[in-house]
Amino acid sequence: MTRTDASLRRFLHGLPGVDQVGADKRAAGLGTRSIKTTAKEFALDLAIRMVDLTTLEGQDTPGKVRALASKAMRPDPADPTCPATAAVCVYPDMVPVAKETLGDSGVHVAAVATAFPSGRAALDIKLADTRDAVEAGADEIDMVIDRGAFLSGRYLQVFDEIVAVREACVRADGSSAHLKVIFETGELQTYDNVRRASWLAMMAGGHFIKTSTGKVQPAATLPVTLVMLEAVRDFREQTGHMVGVKPAGGIRTAKDAIKYLVMVNEVAGPDWLDPDWFRFGASTLLNDLLMQRTKMRTGRYSGPDYFTLD
């Protein structure tokens, strides 16, 4: 989609403003909903299937990535009915390790790229980072926008970078890795900026919009995710195209995950209740989901060390 700086500015600043008090109140209200029995069992399994099991530390080793990939395929080795997670998310240099371990399991490999987590690098470096990850076998790329450019109103620069990174996701055979665009909402300051960033990323061709890197607080919150879900809903109404949403960072309990699933259903609609359209970026959430799942099956809680610690 061809855009000029002036047209982007007019469009983004012409979006309806977000009622902060109203968004906070609605998110809080949706967060009080509860679900029981078979609906809760379904929600727990769905949440597991939506997890991007993540390790993004300087101390990551091939052994840690192999262990994480094995857990993604069989989250609960004692229960073969437990579903696999959606993906394993790693730094680009760990993509070959994750890819080899996951094989044809169906669990995707996601790689962070574009000078994660700061996004502060020259475009050619960001594109080389992306191409290296894609060529190594990444199924998905999680890029970060240049928040400094966005906050100073250089929308076209951000738009063009997203377009260029999406083009870098295309492989030689014509297939493409899916692109998730990370906003780092904790640095965007206002809900209006979150809405503008959402529309900017969607118009530039992002397959998913993602809240956070997990390195900045606050990370994912219910009100911010509400604003993003409203954006993808409205974008589909206007264009016919669905875009996914991924809250990441700070979602640690099954109770929290279910709050997000309720919000997805109520705000965007049931079409988004699918790992193809909604993900959780998490490293600690999975164990609590597994503990709650075991409680539903057996009537008792397992100890926190019953499942592997990541």
Automatic annotation (TrEMBL):
**Family matches, as Pfam families:** DeoC (PF01791)
Q: What class of enzyme is it?
A: lyase
Question: Is Lyase there in the keyword field?
Answer: yes
Family under the similarity heading: Belongs to the DeoC/FbaB aldolase family. DeoC type 2 subfamily.
Domain of life of the native organism: Bacteria
Q: Which organism is it from?
A: Nocardioides taihuensis
Q: Name one GO molecular function term.
A: deoxyribose-phosphate aldolase activity
Q: Which InterPro entries match?
A: Aldolase_TIM, DeoC, DeoC/FbaB/LacD_aldolase
Q: Identify the pathway.
A: Carbohydrate degradation; 2-deoxy-D-ribose 1-phosphate degradation; D-glyceraldehyde 3-phosphate and acetaldehyde from 2-deoxy-alpha-D-ribose 1-phosphate: step 2/2
Record protein name field: Deoxyribose-phosphate aldolase
